[in-house]
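Let us work through a complete example step by step.
Step 1: write down the sequence.
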Amino acid sequence: MAYDRPTEIPSSMDETHAEIAALRAKVEALMNDRVSPAVARVADKAEAAAHQATDTIREQTDRLVDAIREKPLTAVGIAALTGFVFAVLCRR
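Step 2: predict the structure and record it as tokens.
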């Protein structure tokens, strides 16, 4: 495509730059209006799930420690049996 006047190229370049700037502004607006809040909600849910998992693990650990303190011989027997079963399974 040949241009008759040298001013046609800068004019279309300016229009192109203006369109690109407008598109960037739209993308930024969409990011701020939709994507950022969605990411924040997901992060909040993930944080809540992590806290809940941590609390559950602590509760289960406390229950296990209490059970071991109440019945230490049973705990040793279960540990020995578990070790034996694991050893048998690893040999195969």
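Step 3: interpret the result. The CA atoms of residues 60 and 66 lie 10 Å apart.
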